[in-house]
């Protein structure tokens, strides 16, 4: 599929890829534009744009607040789809949507997928939609060249990893630890064995997120994963130092 091929091609040129995350409409779409420009200019390989939801269960307090503030400011699904179209047309890297299933369900599965395809979105991350419930939706997405990206956790058995791999496309998202996003993750022998199990379960690229915060964290993944995911750290940086701090931070990660 398109996303997998693009990432594997980019991976040949770098020790490890970077994927960043932002919540659409937080603090505003105009600031989102400035942040994405800095991310792309400083070498980000893939960007995950979150369509805000009131109860983002996989997200820690930083992203939760960003979701709630974006919704309070009036962000709509239609505005997010249009923004995604603008970004995908402006930059030559993959853009993904991340959201929760209630957003897709209320908008309409087929209508959402058609709009995402028209926008040039190449992948979807929906943490609360396992294949047991969303297999038909994942097939519909794949038929439209939109990769359903599934999440593996440290608690996943080898059998579960194999099952998820059978449904996934684009890449596998490996959660660095149990729990929600935002807290610092610790890397040790147990974590590296978990990544080795992930690698054995799939031929898709491996992306690692949840608590990746600095250059050392990214370096620790080289040779073990294909892509590091930076999420809460950049949102916190924008809150504390402003959007212009994002570019230098991204540049410092490799």
From TrEMBL:
Enzyme class: lyase
Keywords: Amino-acid biosynthesis, Aromatic amino acid biosynthesis, Lyase, Tryptophan biosynthesis
MF terms (GO), sorted A to Z: tryptophan synthase activity
Alphabetized CDD domains for the sequence: Tryptophan_synthase_alpha
PROSITE patterns referenced in this protein's UniProt entry, alphabetically: TRP_SYNTHASE_ALPHA (PS00167)
Pathway this chain belongs to: Amino-acid biosynthesis; L-tryptophan biosynthesis; L-tryptophan from chorismate: step 5/5
EC number(s) on file: 4.2.1.20
Catalyzed reactions: (1S,2R)-1-C-(indol-3-yl)glycerol 3-phosphate + L-serine = D-glyceraldehyde 3-phosphate + L-tryptophan + H2O
Lineage top rank: taxon: Bacteria
Active site, UniProt feature: 48, 59
GO cellular component: cytosol
The UniProt record lists the keyword Lyase: yes
Annotated InterPro entries: Aldolase_TIM, RibuloseP-bd_barrel, Trp_synthase_alpha_AS, Trp_synthase_suA
Subunit: Tetramer of two alpha and two beta chains.
Function field: The alpha subunit is responsible for the aldol cleavage of indoleglycerol phosphate to indole and glyceraldehyde 3-phosphate.
HAMAP family in the cross-refs: Trp_synth_alpha (MF_00131)
Family: Belongs to the TrpA family.
The protein's name in its UniProt record: Tryptophan synthase alpha chain
Gene for this chain: trpA
């Amino acid at each position: 599929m398109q996303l997998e091929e693009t990432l594997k091609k980019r991976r040949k040129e770098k020790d490890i890829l970077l994927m960043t995350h932002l919540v659409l409409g937080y603090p505003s779409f105009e600031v989102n534009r400035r942040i994405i420009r800095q991310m792309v200019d400083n070498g980000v390989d893939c960007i995950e744009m979150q369509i805000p939801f009131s109860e983002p269960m996989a997200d820690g307090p930083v992203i939760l607040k960003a979701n709630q503030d974006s919704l309070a400011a009036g962000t709509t699904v239609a505005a997010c789809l249009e923004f995604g179209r603008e970004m995908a047309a402006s930059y030559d890297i993959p853009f993904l949507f991340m959201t929760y299933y209630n957003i897709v369900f209320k908008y309409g599965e087929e209508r959402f997928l058609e709009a995402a395809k028209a926008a040039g979105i190449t992948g979807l991350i929906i943490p609360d939609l396992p294949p047991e419930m969303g297999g038909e939706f994942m097939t519909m997405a794949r038929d439209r060249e939109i990769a359903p990206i599934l999440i593996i956790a440290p608690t996943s058995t080898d059998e579960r990893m194999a099952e998820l791999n059978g449904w996934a496309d684009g890449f596998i998202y490996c959660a660095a630890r149990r729990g929600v996003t935002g807290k610092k993750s610790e890397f040790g022998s147990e974590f590296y064995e978990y990544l080795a199990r992930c690698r054995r379960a799939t031929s898709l690229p491996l992306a690692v997120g949840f608590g990746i915060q600095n250059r050392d964290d990214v370096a620790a993944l080289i040779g073990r994963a294909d892509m590091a995911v930076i999420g809460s750290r950049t949102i916190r940086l924008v809150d504390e130092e402003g959007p212009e701090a994002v570019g230098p931070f991204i540049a410092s990660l490799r």
